[in-house]
Design goal:
Elements (H helix, E strand, L loop, with lengths): L5 H14 L8 H7 L8 H23 L6 H21 L5 H25 L6 H18 L3 H20 L8 H16 L2 H17 L1 H8 L3 H22 L7 H18 L8 H16 L1
Helix pairs in contact: 3-4, 3-5, 4-5, 5-6, 5-7, 6-7, 7-8, 7-9, 8-9, 9-12, 10-11, 11-12, 11-13
Amino acid sequence: MRPPFYVRQLRRDLDEWIKRGLVPESSRAAILESAGAGQGMSFASILGILGAILIGAAAMSFVADNWERMPKLARLMVLFGGMWLAFGLGWFLAHGRPVLSQAFVLLGVLLFGANIMLVAQTYHINAHYPDGILLWAGGAMAAAALIPSRASLALAIGLGALWTHYEHFDFDKALHWQYLGFWALGVATAIVLNWRPAIQLSAVALIYWAIISTEGLRLLLGWSEVEAAALYVLIPLVLWAAANALRPQAIGGALTVEHYAFLVFLVTGFILHFIDRNTAVAQSWMVAAGILSFGA
């Protein structure tokens, strides 16, 4: 994770290095671009994003107020017309005004979610409602990959976590394995977009999934609580050691994985102090974790 004001300091250092002849001036722009310079949002850009979102909210409020008086065809035209207009503007502005493009794409994704709910209400569709969240998340992921849109990717990751949450708590899926496929797709998209915050969001989402899946995993394996907790100590330690080994090769996201894995390792190790550790499986996992920590 870069320290605060990293890009600002990098600009100063580059100016000094160019004066001293250490770096050719022709490389300055490429170095700053690779460091993420110029991706910050101006006040005007922030106002543009808020304006786009408020316009969308106003349009949705207007439709909601006149919903019962509108014929079904008019409803569909308003809903899908607004959504595709937002996506079209996002696509059109992608090169000249990237921040406004992100705002309109995000607006289109939000309208897509509203369309799912309103169409289901209009036609009285009684379905497995987490599937609607998955459909919304899939649309956000598609927008993130095709346009591309980092804001849509962040929303997709959050919706994916919401999907597995409802599947687990409202429909008693102790182990919702399907989420891991969606999660992997989000990580792959984050790597393609080269956006570290999305990798961090994915790490948080995976930790949440692991927490709510602990009991299901324990019952599946027939283990005690301490044995499952010991495994939760070993797995993040393996990830931490692997990320630590890959970091010198500048593997994207390795530092993020290292930080989150070590955090989970510390938390689960702390939890182990409050439960009985006198089982053979738990002791085996703890020995493996100890060996790995020394090797790392």
